[in-house]
Amino acid sequence: MTKTAEMKTWYGMIATVGTLGSYSRMPGTLGSMAACAVLLVLRDVPVWLILLTAVIGTYASEKYAKASGRTDPAEVIIDEVVGYWIACWGFDLSYAIAGLFLFRIVDITKPFPIRRIEKLPGGFGIMADDIVGGIMVNLIMRAVYWMFFQDGLSMIYGFFGR
Asked: What DSSP string runs through 80-123?
């Protein structure tokens, strides 16, 4: 089956987000931007939709990777969608661009333990690194929010006797 034919299967349409993953030399960024656009339209992505997309995306990515004979095809971007939504979960829309920027940095640099998780087999490995990356970004944004907007720095300074 050709790459184009694979993308037109039900699992290919899900894995490549309606073939969007094939329209750019930076498909991960395009997938994250698409997820950002959905977030801006919906104003909030509910947990059930994130979980459902992760489960279906894992299965579709697995089938697509097997059909293509590649372990992590670049055009598979459903993982970026889920990862970005996790990164921004629980924040208002004013954090959408910061979440996009940070998520792309984490997804591209793959800090520990993401690089290791990426090596997991099949669709689980395809999805898991972006899920962990999204969790990392969410925690980073929460820490920054706490430090600068919830008086966390004052608490830290007080702890160290300043």
From this structure: HHHHHHHHHTTS-GGGHHHHHHHHHHHHHH-TTTHHHHTTSSHH
